[in-house]
Specification:
It contains five helices and six strands, in the order E-H-E-H-E-H-E-H-H-E-E. The protein is an alpha/beta fold.
């Protein structure tokens, strides 16, 4: 059963004059939360075999720290994931091939919007409520599908949980 993990990057430094948005790095708490999110995902029995990562510094750092909890995982940086919408994310996802568990490390509001868009019948009500409020930093929505990635469309998945790495201290 194909499984999708939609992860929002961890807490990054605030925007500042002269600093490109894509160059914003993780804060210390964000680095800790990224590591914890990877652990929480692994503890939930999930092991991604493909990571689709936005090219921003904060998403790459989030994935690098998360990935320490997993074994081998193909990683693809995809420019489309930086400033995209749900349709753009789905276009990238449709190229996942035969990967069974895919993690997309991206941004808000696209991550929560995609989770809400894909969540169909049988989705966990508590997880749906959490997604409706947006995904906080270092948080991931987990969806399961009964179709291949090329056929993923609106309401065809089941949102099973929302996982967080935010239970760390500064």
């Amino acid at each position: 059963m194909p499984t999708l993990i939609l992860a929002r990057h961890a807490k990054a430094e605030a925007p500042a004059a002269g600093l490109q948005d894509s160059d914003r790095a993780l804060e210390l708490i964000g680095r800790k939360a990224s590591t914890r999110l990877g652990q929480v995902i692994a503890e939930a029995g999930l092991t991604p075999d493909l990571a689709l990562v936005s090219p921003s510094v904060r998403t790459q750092q989030t994935w690098k720290l998360m990935s320490a909890a997993f074994g081998e995982c193909e990683t693809r940086l995809d420019e489309e994931l930086y400033e995209t919408h749900v349709a753009g994310l789905l276009d990238v996802l449709r190229g996942a091939g035969d990967a069974q568990t895919v993690v997309v490390v991206g941004h808000e509001p696209t991550s929560s919007a995609a989770a809400a868009h894909l969540a169909g019948s049988g989705s966990d009500k508590t997880a749906l409520q959490r997604v409706a409020h947006g995904l906080p930093t270092a948080t991931a929505a987990v969806l399961e599908f009964s179709c291949p990635w090329t056929e993923v469309t609106s309401r065809c998945g089941r949102l099973v949980s929302v996982l967080s790495g935010r239970d760390v201290e500064e």
